[in-house]
Amino acid sequence: MTKFVLIGSGLAGGLLAAYLGRRGYDVDLYERRADPREGNLVGGRSINLALSTRGIHALEQIGIADEVLKQAIPMPGRMIHEKSGALHFAPYDVDPNKHINSIGRAALNTTVIEAAQRYPNVRVYFSHKCTDVDIDSATAQLVRSSVAASASPARTVSPANSEDQIIEARGDAIIGVDGAFSAVRQSMQLKIANFDYDESYLAHGYKELTIPPGPDGAWRMEKNALHIWPRKSFMMIALPNPDGSFTCTLFWEFEGPRSFATTKTDDDVRRFFDEEFPDAVRLMPNLLDDFKNNPTGSLVTIRCSPWYYKDKVALVGDAAHAVVPFYGQGMNAAFEDCVVLDECFAGFPKDRHRAFAEYFQRRKVNADALADLALENFIEMRDKTASRAFRAKKKLDHFLEAALPGICLPLYTMVTFTRIPYANAARRARLQDRIVYATLIILTMSILGLSLFLLR
Fold first, then answer.
1. Could you read off the pLDDT of 220-262 as tens digits, one per residue?
2. Secondary-structure breakdown of the chain: helix, strand, coil percentages, each rounded to the nearest 5
3. What gap in Å lies between CA 21 and CA 117, rounded to an integer?
4. pTM
5. In this structure, what is the dihedral angle of CA atoms 315, 318, 319, 320, given to the nearest 10 degrees?
6. How far apart are CA 285 and CA 365, in angstroms?
7. Burial (CB count <10 Å: 0-12, 13-18, 19+), residue 258
8. What are the backbone dihedrals phi and psi of residue 386, each rounded to the nearest 5 degrees, phi first?
9. What is the pLDDT of residue 335?
C-alpha cells in the first residue's frame, strides 16, 4: 500500500487526509500544534472563513458538506457602513439564493479531521513539528512535543512522555500542507536547484476584535451579511458567528501618521475608533483589551515553483500559494487543490510523478491568478465599496447577468459561485468589461451625435 506522510493538519491537511484515506492509501498526518478539539486554540489570529462554491464542492466529495453548512451562517451580500452611520446593502449576485457562508475555523478544522479519521488507514499525530525533509527518501524529521494532553480521540496520537523527542516519518511521498511558512517547502528551496520563490508583504497588518452577542445570544447587527467599514487606505470587516457574536478584523497600515505603530495608548485607540467606526465602537465593550492583547498579524502573498519533486514531495494550499484574504478564497482554493490532486491520482494511479506534475500544471496558473485577484479586491473593498459609482457598476453587472444569463457573468460571481478556473474567470471578466465599456462609449457618442443633430 502506498504510504503518504502529510505535514500539517490544518483545514486542507485534514481534508486531503480524508481524500487519500478514501482512495485506500496509508496516511500519517502530523501537526505541530496540539489537538484543537481539546481547546488548544490561539486567539486573535484566525480571520473568519467564508466558505463558497469551490470549498463546498470539495466537502461534498467526502460527504461532509451538509454537516459543515449546519454550522455556517449565510451571507448573501455586503453591508457597507459609512462614517455617518448610513448603511448600504450590496448583494453579491443577482440571484438572492446565492451566498457565501461564515464559518469558524475551529469547527471546520474539527470536522475535516474527524472525516479523515473515519478511515482506519489514516492516523493523526498532534504536537509534532517538522524541522526538515529529505526529499529524495521522502523522510521527515519531526520534534515530538510533550505539550499535548493525553486524552486523545481514536487513532489520534499524542506524546506519551514528558520529554521532546526527535523522530523520523518515512513514506513513499510527503505532502506539505503546512501553511505559508511551510517547513516542507523550505526543504525544497534548499535542495532543488533553481527553485523559484517569491514572498511579498502588504504594508498593512491585521488585528482581530470582537462584537459580543446581545441579550439571549442575539446578533447586534444584521446577521446575514459581511460587514465592511471602508475608509480609503484601510478598513474593518465583521463576520457573524453562531453564538451571536461578530469577529471583526481591522486591516490597517503598520507604519505612518495613523497606523498600528503610532496608536499605542488607550486614548489613542479610543480616539481612532470613535472617529472612524462610531457605530461599531458602541458594540465593542472589550475593544481596548482586544486591541492590546491580540497580536498584529501580517499579510503575505507567496508564489513558488515547482510544487513537487519527482514522485517524492508535493505542496498543497498555502504551502504552495498563500494569498491575502480579501477575496475569501484562500481556504476554498486549498480545498480545490485537494480535489484536483485527487483527480490526478485517479487519472495516473500507477505514476505518482506524472500525477504531481499534472496537478502542478493545472493549479499553478490559477493560484497566480487568484493571488492577483485578492490583491485587487483589497483596493476594491477599502476604497470603492462606499462610492456611488461602484454601486452603480455592480447594479449594471447584475442587470447584464439577468439579461444575458450564462453569457455575461460578473467576476465575483465566477470566482465565488462557480468552479470556472480562476485564470479563465479573470480573462473572461476583462473581455466582458472591454465589450461593455466599448458599447457604452458607442451609445454615448450616438446619443451625443443625435442631440447635436437635433439642436441644429
1. 999 999 999 999 999 999 999 999 999 999 999 999 999 999 9
2. 40, 25, 35
3. 9
4. 0.89
5. 60
6. 45
7. middle
8. -85, -5
9. 98
